[in-house]
Design a protein that fits this description.
Layout (H helix, E strand, L loop, with lengths): L8 H9 L11 E5 L6 E8 L5 E7 L2 E2 L3 E5 L3 H16 L7 E5 L4 E5 L5 E2 H6 L7 H14 L8 H9 L4 H10 L18 H7 L3 H16 L3 E3 L8 E3 L4 E3 L6 E3 L1 H22 L2 H33 L3 H5 L3 H26 L5 H4 L4 H21 L7 H10 L2
Antiparallel strand pairs: 1-2, 2-3, 3-7, 4-5, 6-7, 8-10, 9-12, 10-11
Length: 401
Amino acid sequence: MSSYHPLTEQEAIDMARSLPDFFAPDAQLTSSEIGDGNLNLVFHIKDTASGKGLILKQALPYAKVVGESWPLTLDRARIESEALIIQGRLAPGLVPQVYHYDQELALTIMEDLSDHTIMRRGLMSGDHYPRFAEDISDFMSATLFYTSDLGMNQQEKKRLAGSFINPELCKITEDLIFDDPYTDSPNNNCEAAIADEAKALQTDEELHFEVALLRQKFLTEGQALLHGDLHTGSIFVTAESTKVIDPEFAYFGPIGYDVGAVISNLLLNYAGQEQWSSDEARERYRSYLLQTVIDVWEQFERKFRKLWEEHGVDRLANTAAGYKDYYMKRLLQDTIGYTGCKMVRRIVGLSHVIDIDSITDDAKRERAQRMALAIGKQFIKSNRQAGSIHHLVDIVMKGIE
């Protein structure tokens, strides 16, 4: 019989104390449950004397955001732990260190990042992160290249992919991002002020065609081991450090999905600046966000190509004339398409972003929602025409005119 049960705060303290050589024997430990996500319990354990801490993350057998009516596999905790270990090896210093994984309790004990800020909240406060583009492009280029057929022995990759079959969490993505926003789904959550936009999504045949193409890639194209949920709520930052957390949606899928997830959340904050910056500061901060988007893509592309040139393992992919350029152009187009899908979903789908939802002024919130939808739809519809990241930039600039 399984010993699984949701931990109490005292049990979380006891688990933390059992970690060898971490806390002093006489340490006075406190616990607080800090999980603000949709799926898990998260305990912050801290020594009151030294300030030393760690995080215990326990998967629940259901979606926390809905309740027990939406059951979920506990195996996602294993997937997350193993993904963090792989990512930590490929991109050292850019994910929290994993100290222990308990399969029976679906529990991962990991590095405390309380000295960092959740990036989404930092952007809402108007903060700048000078290392972010460098760090996140390091993370994505290394983790995605070295788990692709370009940088990994193909047979080893197939064996590894078997460990990351993640059907239940992929099903969440498949429904909430690629299906629900384009039909009258009970999962959707749309404000009355933009009901006309939500209705238009359901009848836009051109949009549906492009979403179907992107969904098919998500279903079938296992290019690399994705983080699978790489938004600004899953990134902790300081001015000098970036840490990527929460890869429980990890699976082998299209590379552009991860890159698009990062860019989409920067642009959702861009739309939310209707609230989060004053009139005179808004243009400057939006310029910073847009430049960050450009830097993320251009640095990712440069680093991915460099890894390919120096460490590519596939003979034909290395030598076929024009193949690298073709491959990278497809990655750009996929990135722009998935950026759009993620933006649309966050406005009319089940789970929104506080960058926009917490705007208190109704008119400003509606403007931000309509801006995000207009930009996202155009990304989706035009992604296959993109030849550079400036295709995206041009759409964004037109979206605020």
